[in-house]
Every structure is written in C-alpha cells, then in structure tokens.
Amino acid sequence: MNPLPHRVKLVDVGPRDGLQNEKQPVPAAVKIELVHRLQDAGLKEIEVTSYVSPKWVPQMADNHEVMQGIQRRQGVRYSVLTPNLKGFEASLADRPDEIVVFGAASEAFSQKNINCSIAESIERFAPVVEAAKAKGIAVRGAMSCTVGCPYEGDVPPSRVEYLAGLMKGIGVEHVGVADTIGVGTPKKVQAAFDATLKHYDIDSVSGHFHDTYGQAVGNTLAALEMGVWQFDASVAGLGGCPYAKGATGNVATEDVVYLLHGMGIDTGIDLDALIDAGAYISEQLGRPTNSRVARAVLAKRKA
Ligand SMILES: CC(C)(COP(=O)([O-])OP(=O)([O-])OC[C@H]1O[C@@H](n2cnc3c(N)ncnc32)[C@H](O)[C@@H]1OP(=O)([O-])[O-])[C@@H](O)C(=O)NCCC(=O)NCCSC(=O)C[C@@](C)(O)CC(=O)[O-]
After folding, report:
1. Tell me: the pLDDT tens digits for 84-109?
2. Which residue owns the Cα nearest ligand 1 atom 26?
3. Where are the beta strands (DSSP E) in the chain?
4. In order of start, what are the domains of the chain with their CATH numbers?
5. Catalytic residue at 241?
6. pTM
7. The one catalytic residue among 116, 145, 149, 241
C-alpha cells in the first residue's frame, strides 16, 4: 500500500455526466446555476457539457448556451466532451479549459456510444488532440468500461492496457479509468489501474466510478491506496450513460468528500455548501438526492 495522498483533486461531472441522461428538459439556467453553486462550494474542476450529436444526446444540445452563461471564476477549470473534430471546433467559441475525448475498453460499447470501433475512435481523436494542444487546451481521455461492459460482460485488464497505450500514442496527457456501469470491486478496479499505469504515471490518471452496485466509495479507497489522487464524482450522485442501460449515477461528490475529509485528506471543498448544491439540483429534478451523506446531513439539519 502506498502512503495516502494528502490532497485530492475532484472533478464534478454532474452538469455533464449527471444530467446527460435526464429525460425531462433541464433548462440551461438551472445547469448554469448548478455550475455556480459547485464553484461556490470550492470545486476547482467542473465538467460542464458535451459537444455531441443532439440526436444522440438531446440533453446536451444547449452546450453553447450553458458555457456562455457561466460566470467564470479564476482558478476553476471548465471541461467539455468532444468526440470528434466537429465537436471540438464547435466548442472553441466557448473557450473550454480542457477537452475530453472518450473511448472504451470494450468494442461493443465503443460502437453503441460513439458509433465506431476502438481503432476508428483513436483515428477520430488524434486530430482533436493535436488541434487542442496547438491551442493550448488541456486534453483528457476517458476510458469507459474498464471493468465491465453492458454488452460484453467482464472486461479484462489487457483491453484497458491496449486502450491506454492507444491514448498515450496520440498524445492524450491524462486518462480517466471509468467503471461505467458500476460493477467493479476494489481488486478489479486496482487491476484496471495497474493496466493503465503501464502507459501513464500515477499523476496522470484519475478514477471515475459509478455506484450501481454500491461499490464506488470502496473503489475510491482502493484507488487512493494505490496513490491515485484525482477522481471524478457527481453532485447528488446524478447520472448515468444513455448507452449503459440500468447503470446508475456516478459516486456522489458529497460521499467522496466525506470519505476524504474523514481520513484527513484535503479537498478544498466546503461539504455543507456542496450538500446545498446537491439539494438545489435534486429539487429542480423533483427527486431525492442519491448521496447517502447528503441525506444524513439534511435529516440532521431538520431534526
Ligand atoms: C460521436 C457521434 C457524434 C458520432 O456519430 P455519427 O453518426 O457516427 O457521426 P457522423 O460523423 O456520421 O455524423 C452524423 C450526424 O451527426 C452530426 N455530428 C457528428 N458529430 C457531431 C458533434 N460532435 N456534434 C454535433 N453533431 C455531430 C453530423 O453533423 C451528422 O448530422 P446530420 O448530417 O445527420 O444532421 C455520436 O455517436 C454521438 O454524439 N454519440 C453520443 C456520445 C455520448 O455523448 N455519450 C455519452 C458520453 S460518454 C460517457 O458518458 C462515459 C463517460 C465519459 O462518462 C465515462 C464513463 O463513465 O464510462
């Protein structure tokens, strides 16, 4: 076991991953307010939206309006998903600090999610990465289905190593190891990281865990014990991927912050303000928060 990091960086992916699968229309103004509340709570990285086909993911069709509506705060980085050059070029007017290309360790998921094979996806990403770097925009690679796939079942670490090598080969600086359908358990997640670490160093990887089977906090701890110090999470545990039926949201940011603060690890995040942000979006969506920590704190506040 490595010494635990003293500080962890969290990326709140709630406005993008959290809301992309939402069936009811969520006004751009609500998404903007959510971003503002997250930055007020101390989040320094927020994944705001994606530049994908509005036919495939209608909820993200307001990408431009949302990005233009945000009152940017110095020191906060705003990232967006761009699957191809068309998406990247569309994003430029909105000045993202970081773009995310997203591939999959499973062929079937790659086809369902972005309509091409893994090899074709890398061909599409390569010019995006090159163009982003030429403009001084940071690049992250998301690697879906690094533990399990909704169509193929278990995904072996060798597939993760293969994808990480391809991402590295086109110059992606940082990769996120995603358990898209939340089936991972600590040892499997560690094996996915071990595979990724064949190509990336520990400072260039992050964890992205969905909580379908309630394992995401445990998986976060397992990754922390390897020295991973960057994680995605979603306020109120919002989310789910449109191409991973039945998968629930990301691990709730509130739950990860509670874990980290309880272990004496700094995040720079004000948990109470974060819980308020989660309460805000949950109320807008008309359903209770998925965060166990937020539920406990909100109940205590009422008592
Ligand atoms: C990737 C594509 C666009 C390929 O879609 P395609 O149909 O293969 O693309 P195409 O190049 O053949 O173009 C077809 C049409 O799409 C348009 N198009 C083409 N590109 C764009 C674009 N960038 N923005 C807007 N429109 C676009 C293009 O202009 C054309 O429009 P038409 O002529 O028919 O009117 C499509 O498959 C798509 O949008 N997929 C959605 C992917 C997505 O957003 N998935 C969810 C996010 S990934 C995720 O959640 C996982 C993650 C990251 O969180 C980690 C994890 O947990 O695993």
Report:
1. 999 999 999 999 999 999 999 999 99
2. 53
3. 9-12, 45-50, 77-81, 98-104, 138-144, 148-149, 153-154, 174-179, 205-209, 230-233
4. 9-302 (3.20.20.70)
5. yes
6. 0.97
7. 241
